[in-house]
Design a protein that fits this description.
alpha+beta, GTP Cyclohydrolase I, domain 2
Length: 118
């Protein structure tokens, strides 16, 4: 059984989207990250776990970084970067929220969820 680390509600303005207007004006994206890793025998030592502040920074940098058209791609890029940077992470779940997606009817949120493992 694996233990979980979650960072919920990382938000930043990004310029992701299929439409030129989205790429020009940008909008708020919100990302939740869930990591599975062993949290046994840490002995209160940060170097033996995953630094969630660094996970949040990677996520923020991906949101504010090079624009992509699909939030599916954004989610995948975040997951890949986390797995690359943190060898102790076994599985990462990334949920990208796009609450201001250009949809003509009333809706609350658009969410894409990806799960990547080693």
């Amino acid at each position: 059984m694996s233990d979980l680390i979650k960072v919920i509600g990382i938000s930043a303005k990004g310029f992701h989207g299929v439409f030129a207007s989205e790429q020009k004006r940008g909008q708020k994206f919100v990302v939740d990250v869930e990591l599975t890793s062993s949290l046994k025998n840490l002995n209160d030592d940060l170097s033996k776990t995953v630094n969630y502040a660094e996970v949040a920074q990677i996520t923020h940098d991906q949101i504010t970084g090079k624009p992509v058209q699909l939030i599916e791609t954004l989610a995948d890029n975040i997951a890949k970067q986390i797995l690359k940077e943190f060898k102790k992470v076994k599985t990462v779940k990334v949920i990208v929220h796009k609450p201001k997606a250009p949809i003509a009817i009333k809706f609350r949120d658009v969410i894409v969820e990806v799960v990547r493992s080693r």
